[in-house]
Structure formats: structure tokens, C-alpha cells
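As described in the Methods, two query proteins were run sequentially through the folding procedure within a single session, without resetting any intermediate state between them. The first query and its resulting C-alpha cells are shown here.
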Amino acid sequence: MKQAMMQKPTTSKNIWNPDEDEENQALVDTERMQQYQIQEELEFEQVIFEREQRIRQIESDMLDVNKVFLDLAAMVREQGDVIGTIEENITSAAYNVEGGTEQLIKARNYQKAYRKKLCCLVLILVVVAVVIAIIVAVSLNGS
């Protein structure tokens, strides 16, 4: 009997129970699924957070681009005024050049007429001087 006492008594824990293993496996599977779902939710929240950050960055970039376009429009408007003034000055200068050309033509014609008159006057004076010289010469020879 000593041998019988030395042997461990069999308990229900040492007995293999297939139903208990299936329950444990189901619990482990459920736990793994819950952890997987939690991990997926965390990853999804991380993706959403990153997406929100990118959207905010895009919005900020769009506001910056809008400001640049507004500044550019203001510069174009200012340059448009300057270009308009330059265009007016060029048009005015073109009219002034045309008027100056006409006045130079008139001045040239007046100079030609003045020279003709001066030549005629000099010619008349020479003729008068020659006539007087002839008269004086004839009077001096006849006396």
C-alpha cells in the first residue's frame, strides 16, 4: 500500500478535457480579436489625425497662395497705372514729334523765302549801285 500512497492521486486538473481546451482557445481567440480591433482603431485614428494635419497644411498653403495672388493682382494694378501713364506719355511724345516736324518744315520754308528776299534785295542794291556808279561815271566824264 505504500506504493499506492506514493502515487499521486489523480485530480480533475490532470485529466485532459477537450471542452475546456476549446473554451480556452475561444477566449484566446476573442482576446486576440479584441486586441486586433483596438490596434486597427488606433491605426485608423492615427491615419485620421495625419489626414487632418495634411488638410490643415493644404488649407494653410492655399491661404498663402491666395495672399500671393492678391499681392500679385495689386502689383499688376499698380503697374497697369504706370504702364497707362507711360503709354499716354509715348502718345503725347509722338504728337509732339509730328508737330515739331511740321514746325521744322515751316521754318525751312521761311528760311528759303528769307534767303530769296535777301538775294533779291542784294541784287536790287547792286543794280542801284551800278546805276548810280554809271550815272556818276557819266557825269564825271561829261564834265
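Immediately afterward, the second query was submitted; its sequence and C-alpha cells are:
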Amino acid sequence: MLLNIREASIDSKPMKKIYPAVWQPPNDGSLKFNVDGSARGCPGMAGMGGVLRNHCGRVLGLFSIHVGIQDSNSAEILAIHKACELCVTNPVFQSVEVIIVSDSMVAILWINVAGFGSLEHVRTIDDVRNMISYHGNLKIIHNPRASNSLADMLAKRGSNNEGDLMYMGG
């Protein structure tokens, strides 16, 4: 007789789904901006990070910034905002499709669902929505954490307050 230990244990928790840690490139002619927010507590010392790459995986830009005391969702919203801002203000990136990828379903919902969001971040979310409208080729999507490992490392660097880092090439 076989026994499924997971089903037999009263105290067991559902197993986490494990995603492969593989970054998927965007289509040729598009760019992908992976972003992440990190907080060392709720709230705690927080940082945001992002990396912009082309279809070949070439890094065109990145950032790692300390954002003070925040929760992780707030840091994620700020990371999305920073990525949008960098794309809108750099003429090189204004005419191409840029897919901003976040691993926070909460942040994605706050931005993509009209009238939805955190009252604390109404202005930031509204600003992101305006930049998406202005740019015309910005999309914000959700992807699992494992495929966002470089952005995650940059966000953690920011939450450790290791000094801000910013590079935008073209």
C-alpha cells in the first residue's frame, strides 16, 4: 500500500510551485525591463532594482536604489515607476516596445486595473499610468520571481543601502 505523505499529514502546507530560473528575451526589436522591489521587514529598509535588456540579452541599462523605509509592494511600485520614467525620458527608448516585468502580482494589479491601487501610492500609480499612455509602447506584465533574478539582486543591493547605482546606455 502506497501512502501520500503530503495528504496524510495534518500539519502539512501546500508545496510552493518552483519556476525555472530562466530569463526569456523579448521579441527582436523589443526591450525587456525586469524590475523588483525589496524590503528588509514590513516595513523595513527597502530598495528597488531593474535591468533593461534587448532581444540578445545585452544590458542597455540598470538601476539599484535605496528607497528608505517601505514595504515590498511600495518598493515594487517605485521600481516600476523608475523603469517607466527612464524609458519615457530617454529618446532612444521612446520609439520601441518596452515590456516592464515585475514579480509582484499586487503591484501589477494596482497599476493595470483602473481605479484600483493603494491610497498611499495614488500619485505614483497615476504617474505610471500617464507614462504608459504617453509612451504608447510600454507594457507592464507579471512573471515569476525566478526569471527576475538579476533585478532581485539589484533590489536587495538597494535595500542594503550599498550606494545607488544607475546606468542607461542605448
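The radius of gyration is 18 Å. We note this only descriptively and draw no conclusion about the first query from it.
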